[in-house]
Amino acid sequence: MSETRSEISQLGEFGLIDRISKKINLQNPSSIKGIGDDAAVLDGGEDYTLISTDLLAEGIHFDLSYTPIQHLGYKAVSVNVSDIAAMNGKAEQIVVSLALSNRFSVEAVDALYDGIRAACEHYKVDLVGGDTTSSRSGLVISITVIGKVRKERIVYRSGAKPNDIICVTGDLGAAYLGLQILEREKEVFKSNPGMQPSLDKYEYLVGRQLKSIARTDIIFDLEEAGVRPTSMIDISDGLASELFHIGKNSNVGVRIYEDKIPVDELTYNTAALEFKIDPVTCALNGGEDYELLFTIPQTDLEKLKNHPDIHTIGYVHDKANEHTLITKQGNAVALKAQGWNHFG
Amino acid sequence: MSETRSEISQLGEFGLIDRISKKINLQNPSSIKGIGDDAAVLDGGEDYTLISTDLLAEGIHFDLSYTPIQHLGYKAVSVNVSDIAAMNGKAEQIVVSLALSNRFSVEAVDALYDGIRAACEHYKVDLVGGDTTSSRSGLVISITVIGKVRKERIVYRSGAKPNDIICVTGDLGAAYLGLQILEREKEVFKSNPGMQPSLDKYEYLVGRQLKSIARTDIIFDLEEAGVRPTSMIDISDGLASELFHIGKNSNVGVRIYEDKIPVDELTYNTAALEFKIDPVTCALNGGEDYELLFTIPQTDLEKLKNHPDIHTIGYVHDKANEHTLITKQGNAVALKAQGWNHFG
């Protein structure tokens, strides 16, 4: 046994992944791409087979005091399906493993699977297997998703080219604010259990946190429009962190414009007026929006310009890892990737 | 919210799986077989793609006070690879998800991955992805394995036919006794921490518990011999439980002979003389041997009879779910499947 003890929190999640993946060599010819993108890529004959996995742990990723367990099941599927979408693929199957303590009843497990099944129906994904076991404490949900993409349609994080246009779907920051609201109401409830939280006003924000939807519709629309992005990633850790991933993997830099970042009006007002935080910071570093971030050649811009839910926010340049935000006032500031450090 | 609360322990693991799988309908044409065998089966063009997943939770499946963490990594891969072998397939890729508390150092994670990588090299499997996150307490390892099998070579639990011969590989019961020894030494150590446990004498048994090996060699040998079993399953929950699975899925009964069940001499003596338990009970209900149980047509018996590690233990008959053990004294007794109930 080694005498040294290094803390995982010092490495952080990305440091740990780097450390693990550095020692890995792929030996099977069917393993096309391993760790380092939204999904692993396997040779599936005519198509590529895509594999991705996400683990959600109680107390870290979710709080059952305000998360309806059906929604949790739905979200656990969505975050996995989103990883397949980020490769421009279509999810087809999932396997679900649960570890749960005896705090959970059969009815709770039923409700969790009701949510999982509802998501499966929405995404047309089959639940084909899993493992269910007990845990000493709490609930852990581990889902692996299997998807497909035609070989010529696959999109990695690594294909962004100078002058490409950067696009994001939907709006950003709402899921983060939804979480802030839920946490605030929990504190209010704790100090005054008789008070019913009034979340109606924040329905959109809370819904973005609790009922995440993977943008499989965008994958369909891109194909319809005849556009294959040069790079793509889903926004799970916040726009800034994802831009850094694209920059690092594509060996490019990005320049984005604050006034182009799509932020919903309710998100904007709740952030600025109630929480006194910068709405753009929520969009850049909030995470859990599960929107798609992708780059396209300028020549494809015309094909997407009428899409109501795809927004251009900037462009790619050749100065590797020089990532700039142009503020509303016209100042150029260096982008910072914050991401999450659950080990912190 | 429902008012009823039913305990999972009353349903048990198999009851819970039945409850979940009953509500599932497969909708994708590529989903050939879902829940209910050792692995899910997907149409992979020329071959079938096999998917299986296993979750190991600290305090339930392993005890780090006597389990070297490298071995745990190795075992977590083995139990997954074993599921693919049980479909007559070859594992090719794994994805690994970890949830771990800050009790674990970077060095511990390194050691865990050393074991995972050693297993990957042994089985020629690529680690292609995963998710690493923190947990509130303890370690959870969730691995999903992806494998392949030529369509005409696949073996389900459901193909056993009357008069087929029942075969098992290796020997049974040793892993269970290894666990008993480790638990005993732990108690000794707790009451007298100065005492060093002497496990040398039990090396084989302890090794069978801590360093599980999937029988991928047997899959190779079966193909070499030109034998395709009519049904197959790996022995994770004990021989009796697995025979019940084959019986239920194939709609047949089995008749096995106590004196044919392969039990290693050290297993036998340790069970009978030290622990005063029936060695055959260990083999029938012990579990975690990760040997293979399969059935073959009588006409294939000749091809395997010289294999040193394949043992015939009985035969299949047409009385569905009538499972009998013929004791050494020649008495016929009904087999009981005990299996594990972690929720108990």
Task: Tell me about this structure.
Two copies of one chain form a homodimer. Chain A is of the alpha+beta class and 344 residues long. The first copy, chain A, has two domains: 30-153, 2-Layer Sandwich (60s Ribosomal Protein L30, Chain: A); 165-334, PurM-like C-terminal domain (Phosphoribosyl-aminoimidazole Synthetase, Chain A, domain 2, Alpha-Beta Complex). Chain A is built from ten helices and 13 strands. Chain A has helices spanning 8-22, 69-85, 106-123, 174-191, 203-210, 216-224, 239-250, 265-274, 279-285, 301-304, and strands at 31-33, 40-44, 47-57, 90-100, 126-134, 139-150, 165-169, 231-234, 253-257, 292-296, 310-317, 324-326, 332-334. Chain A has a seven-stranded mixed sheet with strand order 8-10-7-11-9-12-13, with helices on both faces. A six-stranded mixed sheet of chain A has the order 1-2-3-6-4-5, covered by helices on one side. In chain A, strand 12 and strand 13 form a beta hairpin. The two termini of chain A are 25 Å apart. The model of chain A has no long low-confidence stretch (mean pLDDT 93).
